[in-house]
Amino acid sequence: MRLVVVVPVVLLALAACAAGPPPPPAAPPTDGSSATATATPVETGKGELRFTRIAELEQPVAFAVRQGDDRLYVAEQAGRLRTTDGDTVIDLSGEVSGGNEQGLLGVAFHPSGRWVYLDWTDADGHTHITEWAYDGSKATGRRDVLVQEQPFANHNGGQLAFGPDGHLYIALGDGGSAGDPQGNGQDLGTLLGKILRIDPRGGRPYRVPDDNPFVGEKGAKPEIWAYGLRNPWRFSFDRGSGDLWIGDVGQNAWEEVDRQPAGSKGGENYGWNLREGERPFRDGKGRDLVDPVIVYPLKEGGTCSVIAGYVYRGEKIPWLRGRFLYGDFCAGWIKAAPADRLDDAAEVGKVEQLSSFGQGPDGELYALSLQGPIYRIEAA
């Protein structure tokens, strides 16, 4: 993810390292209407979507739901976990770092709903995965599950999600700077540039599942599930198939989405920094690299950073079922493509400063704008 500073607050701008900053954001809408200039419906030939604003928060960047709870939970980059009705659940605003790609970046609830996990960066810029016990009203019993030192201030990843297997998956970027100067993406001896898979309740501070792909391999971190990633800002599991979709923000030329089939045993190498998109990076030569399933050029039409969404499995928009939604932070477009025909993508809407997607307990989808609005995606 790439960010731009806009006074008086720091905004999460996902612009490419080599690209110029995106223009300053427009003022958030204040008229209370459901359709605004920042969320534009688009007719696709299959149907038309509407983006209905349901809440206005401060710099929303991540979304989660809790078992047995009909509230929607949103992480604000400035450090608070809130519900869409405005309640504050956890406040880390006095502890998080305020750099462009830092702050509170991810949230996930344990499948039981009894614990909540946040991904955030501290005053020194280091990543924490922190757990709280949560009874629906109070978050107590705080403990750090995992802490990762960060060599630079950018490329922190931030996504957290429990997979269909009940394990916690954690996205970490390559550590930052530009071009992965430390070679972390291809180094199995570091957690940086990886997606991790752990059981946060199986040990102290956590347990590594026995079937993780690098368990027992000399010199490799056993927590690693997949590697060769630059900055996997957002990933999601398809609640229908179990496939894992990963949006990996590019360097100079290409944005990409990777797909890991549900039957995978892990260990995929997605190529960074040997490759960006489908092209060699700095003459890097790959081995056993997994090709991305979606690639689009950086800067074309104002693009800067891919935002991975979800395969739609809801009931309210029949023509959208089975389509994978993704977008771009700077360009603002949102596209949907059949999961089995990804070249057949069509634009279905626009959200200025799209920071993330969310999925409700019923499979209906949401879009978050860094400007503040939370939109429910509906049939027009």
UniProtKB/TrEMBL annotation:
<feature type="compositionally biased region" description="Low complexity">
    <location>
        <begin position="29"/>
        <end position="40"/>
    </location>
</feature>
<dbReference type="InterPro" id="IPR012938">
    <property type="entry name" value="Glc/Sorbosone_DH"/>
</dbReference>
<feature type="region of interest" description="Disordered">
    <location>
        <begin position="21"/>
        <end position="40"/>
    </location>
</feature>
<feature type="signal peptide">
    <location>
        <begin position="1"/>
        <end position="18"/>
    </location>
</feature>
<feature type="domain" description="Glucose/Sorbosone dehydrogenase">
    <location>
        <begin position="57"/>
        <end position="369"/>
    </location>
</feature>
<dbReference type="InterPro" id="IPR011041">
    <property type="entry name" value="Quinoprot_gluc/sorb_DH_b-prop"/>
</dbReference>
<dbReference type="Pfam" id="PF07995">
    <property type="entry name" value="GSDH"/>
</dbReference>
<dbReference type="InterPro" id="IPR011042">
    <property type="entry name" value="6-blade_b-propeller_TolB-like"/>
</dbReference>
<keyword id="KW-0732">Signal</keyword>
<protein>
    <submittedName>
        <fullName>PQQ-dependent sugar dehydrogenase</fullName>
    </submittedName>
</protein>
